[in-house]
Task: structure prediction
Amino acid sequence: MQITNSEWKIINLLWQKPMTIMQLTKALYDETKWTKYTVITLLKRMLEKGTVHYVEEGRTKTFYPDVTRENAEYEESKELLDKAFNGRVSLMIDTLVKKEMVDDREIDEICKLLNLKKK
Result:
């Protein structure tokens, strides 16, 4: 499952609460300037991928996520690691540290996580 940047905007809202097309359009408009037709197109793609479903109530469709945040983050992380770092977390962390994209607090958190896993 590959979620595009545009689809991430929608699924992030749906993880907060189920929404209709109009609610999604309104929530996204200031940031994206998307019309309801753009939102409908994205939702159709997401339906085909199985990342969302809807419940029809009269003429209104309320959309729900069909993928958990945890699973989506895992898939996205795995794809990034495979594509950019040959599947090696250590190469990614090395790059982040060298480019000063993590601060000392984050490095401490990573070390704690690794030490817990090691035990």
User: Anything to note?
Assistant: The helical segments are 5-16, 21-32, 36-49, 69-85, 89-98, 104-118.
